[in-house]
């Protein structure tokens, strides 16, 4: 069956036809979770933002989603609501390999990022940064 679905390897034409008929009759769709386990990737990139309701952030996420889709990825939008514990939860997803990468467009706690192993070049990308004494755009920006 996998040879028919992937188009790789030899399958007798009679067998191929029977398998394709069964696929149609049963409305079979491949199990993405099983495929992801085999290839050790999720095909998902998390985009962490401080507040999706902000017009700039909404436009940024829309552009990122378009680009990620063209590259074959699905987008998971994660709204932190300016809460550090939300950032922790989303970074844990990267640590547990639930997502292939994270685009960080939110205020960030650098020590938290380092503890989770999220560093540029290791499946993460920062759009803007927040440093002690200076908050990144959005609510409370200086």
Task: Please give a structural write-up.
This protein is an alpha/beta fold and 142 residues long. The protein has six helices and four strands; from the N terminus they run αααβαβαβαβ. The protein has a four-stranded parallel β-sheet, sandwiched between helices. It starts with a helix and ends in a 16-residue tail after the last strand. The C terminus is likely disordered.
Sequence-ordered SSE layout with sheet pairings:
Elements: H1 2-6, H2 13-26, H3 32-39, E1 44-49, H4 55-70, E2 74-79, H5 84-95, E3 101-104, H6 110-116, E4 124-126
The assigned structural class equals: alpha/beta
Low-confidence stretches are 130-142
Please provide the count of β strands. Answer: 4
Which outline best applies? Answer: elongated
Distance between the ends: 59 Å
The chain-level mean pLDDT equals: 78
Identify the strand order in the major beta sheet.
2-1-3-4
What multimeric state do the chains show?
Answer: single chain
* SSE order: HHHEHEHEHE
| Percentage of β-strand residues | 5-15%
Largest sheet: 4 strands, parallel
The radius of gyration is: 20 Å
Portion of residues within helices: 40-55%
Q: How many helix segments?
A: 6
List keywords for this structure.
142 residues; 4-stranded parallel beta sheet; 4 strands; 13% strand
Brief account:
By secondary structure, the protein is α/β, with parallel strands linked by helices.
């Amino acid at each position: 069956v996998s040879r028919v679905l992937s188009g790789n390897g030899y399958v007798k034409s009679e067998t191929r036809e029977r398998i394709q008929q069964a696929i149609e009759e049963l409305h079979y769709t491949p199990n993405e979770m099983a495929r992801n386990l085999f290839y050790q990737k999720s095909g998902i990139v998390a985009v962490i933002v401080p507040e999706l309701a902000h017009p700039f952030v909404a436009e940024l996420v829309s552009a990122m989603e378009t680009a990620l889709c063209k590259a074959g990825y699905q987008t998971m939008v994660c709204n932190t609501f300016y809460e550090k514990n939300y950032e922790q939860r989303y970074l844990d997803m990267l640590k547990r390999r639930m997502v292939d990468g994270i685009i960080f467009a939110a205020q960030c706690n650098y020590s938290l990022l380092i503890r989770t192993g999220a560093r540029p070049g290791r499946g993460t990308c920062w759009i803007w940064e927040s440093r002690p004494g200076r908050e990144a755009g959005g609510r409370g920006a200086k």
